Amino acid sequence: MNPRKSIAMMLVFVLIISIGASALAAGVSPKYVNTSDVQATLSFSGTTANCMANITGLSGTTKISASMTLERKNTNGTYTLLKTWSTESTNSDEFSMSKAYAVTKGYTYRLTVSGNVTRNGTTEPVSAWVENVCG
């Protein structure tokens, strides 16, 4: 094979791989069948963590249920579970949950939203998470 063609093919391959890696690093969400959006939002007011989940189903969604968990990141990179909010549900295509929890400044916290969206008789699991520093 021609050395120039080999180099060109290698450069194309590297470009394709780097574009895919950039998309993953940018936090591109997986494509869902029943769901148009899943968001976890974590902000702080002093030492209060404001935890929010928003899930939007596509037209025809009949039920959305979800729960949230709040964790604190330890110095060794593991997480300690602080709080789990039980599953709540709605019989519409919009779901929202908002909770508050007292935390300690100087730590990184992770909020995870896990749920199910039912549309046209099919239920799919959805999830999202976000990390933020209280500081």
Secondary structure layout:
Layout: H1 3-25, E1 35-45, E2 48-57, E3 61-73, E4 79-90, E5 94-102, E6 108-119, E7 122-133
Antiparallel strand pairs: 1-2, 2-5, 3-4, 3-6, 6-7
Polypeptide structure, described:
By secondary structure, the protein is of the alpha+beta class. The chain has one helix at residues 3-25; strands at residues 35-45, 48-57, 61-73, 79-90, 94-102, 108-119, 122-133. A 4-stranded antiparallel sheet has the order 4-3-6-7, with no helix packed on it. It is flat, with a radius of gyration of 20 Å. The model is unreliable at 11-28 (pLDDT under 50).
Task: Summarize it.
The chain is α+β, with helices and mostly antiparallel strands.
Alpha-beta classification: alpha+beta
Strand order of the largest sheet: 4-3-6-7
Average pLDDT, all residues: 85
Helix count, per DSSP?
1
Shape: flat
Helix content: 10-25%
C-alpha-based Rg, rounded: 20 Å
Largest sheet: 4 strands, antiparallel
Strand content: over 45%
Which terms would index this structure?
135 residues, 4-stranded antiparallel β-sheet, alpha+beta, single chain, 1 helix
